[in-house]
DNA sequence: CTGAAAGCGCTTACAG
DNA sequence: CTGAAAGCGCTTACAG
């Protein structure tokens, strides 16, 4: 009894059976009010903490969920981790982390490892263009509504529409889209949304990954050329690209948003802090995390946790929120030649 | 046997005892080569996976460690999480995440929750100016060598020295330090290091938190004024501040590094991608993570895991690495009045 | 309402 | 080298 007190300790001190103590503490089998109170009081007094191992062994449930994150380059990593942890915690679950290092095979291995470690279910934020399937285990996939295995996600398409409209309302017509990789469902949906806001016009797109394959890691994106050709806005599919765009333009002497507007996606931590602060779309992480967790719990025992009905309503994804900041402003009036000359001059 | 096979299944199929199977699989009690091989083969064949709950209950060890991260604003969150997870995984441990939401009380609660969840030990990356003490449980604290409860950390002081030297070597003498909060041990050490590189001269410091308390969240840092007064470099204590500085300066028409150099700390994900890419100091996360984990395992059973002797050698912290990129360059020759006038003009 | 008993899957002395 | 037995802490039918 020097170490953690257990059910037997409580039972012994009270002269009752372990079963009764267990029942009283769990509130399951019926126990008289007085005895129940006495037991609870004693448990409190002894600082009783149930042994997760004991419970796990007898129930077959660990009360732990696994979270598999794609990799360090997923800029929303902390947001996912924290929100999933919080949502799980509220429902009595702990969260074990796994990491796929951006490798599809590792992703599978990570899932398996977590299952072997006893996770009752897994939340996975998958790597682009990878499928999470064939595990006969409760899983929730957070990706894009258009992804085949998707469980919950933000409504990236309409997020794109919203940001596209925002730019259009500001008078921008010559918009360039900037994305990382066309194989990402999330990015595809965002891009499609942005285009939709422009009547599905065929806006030019810069795919960074392609560009870097040609010109090398972290190469300039060559955005200044687009500006010279009349572009007045860059709609980026992530704040990360927006940041890259803003700095590249600023470095070339092009004012944001004076000469050109830039928008991002995700409202990453620093998006509101840089100069100019970045206009972006934010997803409702808290809600997404809750839905994912509840979806798993429902698979775990359908009668205790009803299916999150919202999930059905949300087949298009959880709405995103437009955050307007300084990086987007009115389109400059149709540029005169002198304006363009000025841009040329400054960027030499 | 429809579900996961267990030791009994293996034992029964082979007509041996569970104890022997356990011994064979763990390699502890001695078992004849042939029997051992047969058992291992059968285990493999059945796809045997040990039950963590069963093992935990009988050994009193969960083989899980807890990781408490300060909050979402800790920009190294993903790095810590991934590296700790990896280091723990290599030694057979899983990692449960906890989150202190930047609140000292929550930090304590998070630690306790993880212990209650059965974590064998805890790694904590504490919030500024908070102590992690009084838990009679294996703990490793990753902070700054000068922190009272510190276990492992980067050598922030000498990191500061290195970056200070770098600037000085480039000819910068009018250097302004930019930090968030003087209460942070990490930041204090970095600042002290930078100053040391300048013979402990009393370099001006901008503490962002103070500034924001006066002027409001995300206010401009007013760096242009320093430039007008002759500053040629800003040594920032985090890449985050460096980014803020770079964009603020660029927005004001001040060229980085042409007019002014800017350096950061931590080599955050985007530091190499913005324009100009940010010169920074990187910590050896992998090594730090390993040391922290091994320190915990040593506390857990000293005879199985020897104390990481390196820990003693590293009382000053794990060396940091200087990453030179484009945001730092030679100090402009002593500025003429016309230069200053130009800066004035551009920043109006 | 209360309790005796079995069992979850493993490990660990201890005998043989 | 191998195995019978006890025990880790809890939960869950089942009796009483």
Automatic annotation (TrEMBL), chains A, B:
Which residues belong to any copy of the HTH lacI-type domain?
5-59
Region annotation (Disordered) maps to 327-348
Segments forming a coiled coil: none
Q: SUPFAM superfamilies annotated for this entry?
A: lambda repressor-like DNA-binding domains, Periplasmic binding protein-like I
Q: Which UniProt keywords apply?
A: DNA-binding, Transcription, Transcription regulation
A family per Pfam = LacI
The keyword Transcription is annotated on this UniProt entry: yes
Spell out the Polar residues composition-biased ranges. Answer: 327-339
MF term (GO), any? transcription cis-regulatory region binding
Segments traversing the membrane: none
Put simply, this protein is called LacI family transcription regulator
Say which species the protein is native to.
Answer: Nitratireductor basaltis
